[in-house]
Amino acid sequence: MSYPLGMVNRVTHLRYNYRIYPDVDQRTMLARTFGSARVVYNDALRIFQNAWKAGLDRPGFAAVARAVITEAKQTLDRVWLAEVSVVPLQQSLRHLQVAYNAFFASLRGDRKGPKVGPPRFKRRSARQSAEFTRRGFVLRETGKLYLAKIGEVKVAWSRDLPSEPSSVTVIKDGTGKYFVSFVVAVDGAPLPDLGEDAVVGIDLGLSAFAVTSSGKRIESPKFLRRAERKLKKYQRAVSRKQKGSQNGRKARLKLAKVHARVASQRRDFIEQETTRLVRESQVLAVETLNVHGMAAKGMRLGKSVHDQALGMFLRVLTAKAARAGRTLIAVDRFYASTQICSACEAKTGPKGKEELHVREWQCTDCGAVHDRDVNAAINILREGLRQIAEHEQLAAGHRKDQSNLGAESLNACGGDTKTSDTLAAPETPNTGTEPGTSGNAKPERDKSLPPSL
Ligand SMILES: [Zn+2]
User: Fold this and answer.
1) How many helices (H) and strands (E) does the chain have?
2) 421 labelled catalytic
């Protein structure tokens, strides 16, 4: 998967996550809400699938929403839908709509990145969630969070919200902890401009976690490698145990706890490194990653926990750069950053995976001696700056017709302008069941039991 980076807008949506402590009654209501949201999603999906199988036109979402919420409440089968707030049920349908839109865009070829399959039925899983929009929650003066039909929930406010959130997702993770994740629109609270010399190129994911064009190495933290082994061990334990047995439950809980610990260590590490990079540089050039490609080619770099950390690093870096008013540019991963000599631009560097072991080399054309990763980072920076200059020329051309096009005009010239959720969801408390952390780990979105309450 490649990561759409490119230029980013000034308004970014960030997530702010907090632990919450619902009481017994609230936990019961939350369980019902999670279950109802899932059932409504699945009922709607079934309607779409049946229409498709029957060769009918795709029904409109409003009509489907009426059928699976309003009308379903009147039936004996689904009468319990009336007990929970309608807001998360509607949000659940909105998620289905988003999934369908992504699928159709992918079919049409309008969507970058890997192919997106059609939406699938949600199954009951260890990690459950429900989303409330503004109509469904209120932040009380007392610091409690009021959720419709659930009541006032205690929140551990580990940091302040920067502004009014537009929505909140309540999450129960695989270890049975509860979290809320607020979406907050943050418009540029730019850091002081550092001037055009404060530029950095970043090479990701080879021998070190990241290496910058100024020669700084960010080593891959040991816990990433250790986590890999541990997760494999606990995963094996889970698959050995009988499904539904007491021991099976214990093994799953242990696995979920390791996941949670890894996720939190990784979050801290990434938080720290991205903050430093954004504080110190006005322009950041990064190479896009092909994490799946790396793993598929059997290059032993493709450890999954490590890959995930790289993906998250890019998302957090993008969000922070946007918030701070920095320019972040993504250099195509096919750009031969490793092979080009950063001194004379001859292609004299190590080639292909046979030469992965080459850490230092001398250019046969100009005699310059290079550290492999630093050289790559310098090339990434140069390519990034070249692309920015190109964009600026184009933008200057546009300016002749339309006055007053600022940095945003860069977006119009081919940068990916996606901000909001996909890029800026850096801190989801995705503890417990993260997708693909080991070969047969549970995907985040649900696989175990048929949808039922
Ligand atoms: Zn050279």
Assistant:
1) 10, 14
2) no
Band (304; pLDDT cuts 50, 70, 90): low
Q: Are residues 108 and 235 in the same domain?
A: no
Q: How confident is the model at residue 277 (pLDDT cuts 50, 70, 90)?
A: very high
**For residue 314, how far is its CA from the centre of ligand 1 (angstroms)?**
30
- Containing 217, the helix (H) or strand (E) segment is strand 217-218
Mark whether 216 and 114 lie in a shared domain.
Answer: no
Mean predicted confidence (pLDDT) in 386-404: 65
Same domain, 92 and 233: no
| pLDDT band at residue 220 under the 50/70/90 scheme | confident
Q: How are beta strands 199-204 and 210-212 bridged, if at all?
A: antiparallel
What number is the average pLDDT over the span 398-404? 48
Residue 324's H or E segment, with its range, is: helix 304-324
Distance 369 CA to ligand 1 centre (A): 8
63 is a domain residue? yes
Give the distance (Å) from ligand 1 centre to CA of residue 379: 12
Looking only at the bridges linking them, the beta strands covering 137-139 and 145-147 are antiparallel
- The runs of H, that is alpha helices, within 349-414 are 372-401, 409-412
Cα(349) to ligand 1 centroid in Å equals 9
Alpha carbons 345 and 279: distance in angstroms, whole number = 30
82 to 122, 187, 295, 311: CA distances (angstroms): 21, 38, 47, 40
Q: Which domain holds residue 110?
A: 23-123
Rounded to the nearest angstrom, the distance between the alpha carbon of 370 and the centre of ligand 1 is 9
Helix-strand-coil percent breakdown of the chain, rounded to 5?
A: 45, 15, 40
Q: Considering 203, 383, 434, 446, which one is annotated as catalytic?
A: 203
pLDDT in tens, 146-181: 999 999 999 998 877 877 888 999 999 888 999 999
Mean pLDDT of 92-118: 86
The conformation of residue 124, written as its DSSP 8-state character, comes to B
| 439: nearest Cα among 249, 291, 251, 303 | 303
Please state the domain count of the chain.
Answer: 2
Taking alpha carbons only, the member of 336, 334, 335 closest to residue 355 is 336
Torsion angle (degrees, nearest 10) of CA 160, 163, 169, 175: -10
235-238 CB contacts, 8 Å cutoff, 24+ apart = 235/438, 235/439, 235/440, 235/441
Q: Is the pTM of the predicted complex or chain greater than 0.90?
A: no
Active site residue 373: yes
Q: Which candidate in 43, 131, 373, 444 is catalytic? A: 373
Task: Calculate mean pLDDT across residues 388-417.
Answer: 50
